[in-house]
Amino acid sequence: MATPRWVDLALGAVMGASVVLAATVAAEAATPGELAGWAWLAVGGVVVATALFRAAPLVGLLVGAATLVGYHLAVGDPLGLAWPLVVVVYGVARAGHLRAGAGFATAYLATVFAHRAIDGAALDGVALLHSAAQEGLLLAGALLVGEVVRTRVLQAETAREHLAALERGQEEETQRRIAEERLRIAHDLHDLTAHTVSVVSLHAGVARERFDRDPEQARASLATIEDASRQAATELRGLVGLLRSDNTSLSSDGRDAVHRAVEAARSTGLDVELRLDPPDLNLVGPAGLAVGRIVQESLTNVLRHADARHAEVTIRKDDGALDVAVVDDGAGPPGDLTPPQHGVGLAGMRERVEVLGGTLRHGRGAEGGFEVHARLPIRSGP
Fold first, then answer.
1. Residue-range domain boundaries for the chain
2. pLDDT at position 151
3. Most exposed among 91, 163, 192, 292, judged by the fewest C-beta atoms under 10 Å?
4. Rounded-to-integer distance, Cα 175 and Cα 307, Å
5. Against a cut of 0.70, is the pTM above it?
6. How many Å apart are CA 255 and CA 319, to the nearest integer?
7. Average pLDDT over residues 299-325
8. Exposed, middle or buried, 257 (CB in 10 Å: 0-12/13-18/19+)?
9. Cα dihedral sign for 263, 267, 270, 273?
């Protein structure tokens, strides 16, 4: 909080009064009214200098030193040189003008003591040096105190700024993590609903067509719909629970998600071949969970868009990374373009992969169909 201006004015008045008293004693005057004009000029200079020690310390020091030099050269009374300027000298150093303050103080003392030495009437050589040392030490002390205070204030300000920067950084990091978590949850919700709706839609069509001709097949399709709906409800409850807790994933095992996605696709009549290398490969940690979602989304796209009969899912661990490939024998995208309906799922897959520092490729296969290839570095090994 800034110091009120009246405090500096009051301090200036106190210093001015002390100079009046000291000058009266030095001049051996009966009353302050008997002081010479130069004495009153010096008093005014000290008042101004002290009042400006915070607002304009260099200006105050110049005014105070000039009037005091004039007083000492004109009057010659043994009025102390340093103490009337000690406050403004402190203010100069406190404002960061240490060199300027030291230069002013040195020139001020040198001028007055040179005049005294030339005059030769006031003090002998030893006494003159002793007085100069005392006055110089007093001003040097004021400069030192001002510099120390300035340094402490700067350190405190730096600490406050650093703390504020840390708080801003923590807030930004929190907001970033919240945004990432919302995006991840949105991806999970998209993957879950798209996969389940595709399975339900296909089996509902089968049940409708076979209801009269093949009741057993229709019942099997309805049972698959029931299982898929139940599984979706379970995962949706997990998703809601995730929003209410600090959990980071709906599932702790990507391998389970892969098997469920493959079985669901097989239940629609799609021939899905699953290869794991090694066969007991565990898919845990962020990379394993991402693999489960990639397989689920890729097979969902195959069911919805590819018009395929066969699909291959290959997952292998190689050189500290997980490689996953989903290839189908369907129609594939027209030309070299990815159809718009693939965009949402593929964009979500790409974001998942890139967050983990991996790579994703997709497009028409060498023999037709559509291929999705992803490589994910393992950060918490399976």
1. 5-165, 271-382
2. 93
3. 163
4. 42
5. no
6. 19
7. 87
8. buried
9. positive
